[in-house]
Design a protein that fits this description.
This protein is of the alpha/beta class. The chain is 30% helix and 23% strand.
Amino acid sequence: MKKVAIILHENFEESEAVVTIDILRRSEIIVDIYNIQDKDFQVGSHNIIVKTEYNIESLNSVNYDGIIIPGGPGVNDLFDNEVLLNLIKDFNSSNKMISAICAAPQILGQAGVIDGIKIVKFPTSNKYLEKAFIQEKDSIIDKNIVTGSSIGTVVPFALNIIEYLQGKEQKEKIKQQLVII
């Protein structure tokens, strides 16, 4: 069974996290919810409180098949977070899935893992992306990187994570269950 870690941060975009968690769990992917801060919950950008299970300090990439970083205005507070940047680099060095949506691909850029990689991102989120190949799509998979452009593309983003971890057949199965036409 596949297992991923999702990183919640203050002012994260709630739907990008919760919808992704929901869709992945429908596909029987284990999703552990980590907090970038030392708290049992995280407050999103629209004041929705989500319970978290673990602190990022305890996250070990060896135990997971991938990592997910939702976007939102709080991404700006993640720049220069050495713990997160090192985790991203650890996942990348093991060729494990790294996924980010909305503003969060900028963190992947700062970590140096998307040089020469096709990505999508929120239109005004441009820091650290000079070496990536920006695409105009809802979500994209390139090598071990899965990106989504915004809250409006969270379903294709989650489905692409399923495709990466479990294959196209499973992605289509879940897509049918969700009644994506």
